[in-house]
Design a protein that fits this description.
By secondary structure, the chain is an alpha+beta fold. Helices cover 48% and strands 12% of the residues. It folds into two domains: 6-75, no CATH class; 91-130, no CATH class. It is built from five helices and five strands, in the order H-E-H-H-E-E-H-H-E-E.
C-alpha cells in the first residue's frame, strides 16, 4: 500500500498518466480500465499499490515497478512431474452395457408374451423371422 508520506518523495501518477508511463516502456499503452483492475483486483494474485485522494486514484512509478516484478515472478512456470495412472472404464460405458442387457431381456419377454420370435439386428427395423401360427 502506498503511504501518504511516500508521495512527498515520489510524484504520484493518475491512472491515465500511469498508462502513458507503461506505454512508453512497453511500446503499447494499456487501457486505463486495465490499470484500475490491477489496483482493485490484481493480476496473478498481485495488486498494484495505489492510494485514493479526493476520489481520485494515484499510483507511483516504484509501485508500478514492484507490481511488474511481482507479477512476472508469479507467472514464471514451475516444472512439475505428473504421474498418469490408467483409470477404470468410464461410468457411462457400464450403463450402456446394462442398458443393452435390459433391452435384450425385454425382447425375450416380448417374444414370450406374443409367441413371436422377433429378429432385430442393429440398424435394421423389426423383422419377423419366425412366425408360428
Amino acid at each position: 500500500m502506498i503511504r501518504f508520506q511516500d508521495l512527498s518523495e515520489e510524484k504520484p501518477l493518475t491512472l491515465p498518466a500511469a498508462a502513458i508511463f507503461l506505454g512508453n516502456i512497453t511500446g503499447q499503452k494499456p487501457h486505463v480500465a486495465t490499470i484500475w483492475r490491477w489496483c482493485l483486483k490484481g493480476c496473478h494474485g498481485v495488486k498494484l499499490e495505489s492510494i485514493c485522494i479526493g476520489g481520485k486514484r494515484f499510483v507511483t512509478r516504484s509501485a508500478i515497478e514492484r507490481f511488474v516484478e511481482d507479477s512476472t515472478n508469479r507467472q514464471t512456470p514451475t516444472t512439475t512431474t505428473v504421474t498418469i495412472t490408467p483409470q477404470a472404464a468410464p461410468h457411462v460405458m457400464r450403463h450402456n452395457e446394462r442398458r443393452k442387457a435390459e433391452i435384450e431381456a425385454a425382447r425375450r419377454k416380448l417374444d414370450e408374451l406374443t409367441g413371436v420370435n422377433v429378429n432385430r439386428s442393429r440398424g435394421a427395423g423389426p423383422e419377423t423371422a419366425n412366425q408360428s401360427a
